[in-house]
Each structure stands twice: as structure tokens, then as C-alpha cells.
Amino acid sequence: MTVCKLNNNLPNGMWWNRVLTEGGAHPDTPSGTYPHVKMQHYPVSCQHCANPACAKACPVGATWRDEETGVVMQDASKCIGCRMCMGACPYDVRTFNWEEPAYAVDFPLGDFDAPKHEAGTVEKCTFCFNRIKRGEMPACMEHCPGRARYWGDLDDPASEISRAIEGRTIVRLLEDKGTDPSVFYLA
């Protein structure tokens, strides 16, 4: 998550990723009894849905799905700050910039072409779209120390991601919402 914050020059207090822990009846609680408890940990960011509810909810077209890459994008210059996209997203992964962004240092960090951050707009993970356009993979996937994240073309059976999920049990979050999320969790 830190590499995401750094590469995208995210302001203080803003994160495009979070960790969902589940197991018990409530979030962040385990199932079972001590010492035999069980919890699952899921890194959660934008699910880059094939049928994004956030894009449908945006009254000005500031959010859309890039058909070539499948990445759900937003344009801060079009965003009117109504937060309809935030209410429509079942994954709770969008963040509102309440004030002018403040940073830990006085100069931009991360990629030279990282998205700009503006007060009164909504933001979310872009799968490092700027990096994708340069032929690179998203920063979180390139720098994951455990190689727990994969990136690629699911339509290409020879791709690394297709090989990683082949024959494995996969989980997609909130499939019942009809958004057709593009992020797969390997069980």
C-alpha cells in the first residue's frame, strides 16, 4: 500500500488501498475461539468492474471504463464532487478530497505522470493507468514482496494471470451486486 501512495503522490490521509479482514460475525473479528481463531485478509482497492456502478451513477461522465484496458477511470477536471459514485460503489474504495491536498514533503514524489489531486473531487485506484500506458505494470504488482499480486490479460490463456488462476478456486468480492469485478482473489 505504501508503494501505491508513493507512486501516485497521494496526499496525507489518502489511501487507494485498504485491508479487509473478515472471519467472524463483524469486520475485523476472527471466527473460532482462542487459540484456534481464523481470519482472512484481503487487500481491497477499486475492483475495476466490467459493469461499474460508479460510472452509471456519475451525472457528468467523470467516471468511465477504458474499453482497451478494462481500467475504471475518472477525470478530476470533470468531477463536480457530488459523491454519487461513492454511494454507488459497493466496495467503499473511493475517497473524497475535502480540502486542498497536503503532502509530507514540499515536492512531488512518485511517477512524473501521476494523477493530480484536487480539492472537491473523488479519487480511487487507477491500476496506475499512467504506468500501463507506458507498458509497465501497476506499482503494487511490480513491487509486492510476496508476489501475491498478478497483472495481465485474462483473455490470453498464456498470460501469467491466466496461468495463476487456472484450476484454482477464485473469489471475487460482492459478485451478487452485478458489477462483474475484475479483481480475483486466489483461495
Q: What features would you describe in this structure?
A:
A hairpin with a 6-residue loop joins strand 5 and strand 6 (72-74). The relative contact order is 0.19. The strands form five sheets. The chain has a two-stranded antiparallel ribbon with strand order 1-4. It has a two-stranded antiparallel sheet with strand order 2-3. Strands 5-6 form a two-stranded antiparallel ribbon. It is of the alpha+beta class. The protein has helices at 2-7, 53-57, 84-88, 129-133, 139-143, 160-165; strands at residues 18-22, 31-33, 36-38, 40-44, 63-65, 72-74, 95-96, 122-123, 170-171, 185-186. It has six helices and ten strands, in the order H-E-E-E-E-H-E-E-H-E-E-H-H-H-E-E. The chain has a single domain (2-186), classed as Alpha-Beta Plaits.
